[in-house]
Amino acid sequence: MAIKPMNNTFHNAAETHGKVRQTPQGKNGDRATLAGIAHRAMIERGREPDFPPKALQELAAIQKPAGVTDGVRDLRDRLWASVKAIA
Length: 87
Known about the structure:
Layout: E1 10-16, E2 19-24, H1 29-44, H2 53-61
Antiparallel strand pairs: 1-2
């Protein structure tokens, strides 16, 4: 996932897992630089900060919001909802 430029000027490119990660220079440059450092640190510590390609493909295949499903209650008007995980 590449960071999009704010003003088409880049600085401080960092190599992460064979990819060059560029950060924009300008108003949000510090935030982007910090995001790049955090991304690299997560990878160095064995974390996976990026979505896998298959997940991105599934996301790209979504054409419209999900429709109404029989038997499923719409709880969006509630202040909260809880889902119990069954292990």
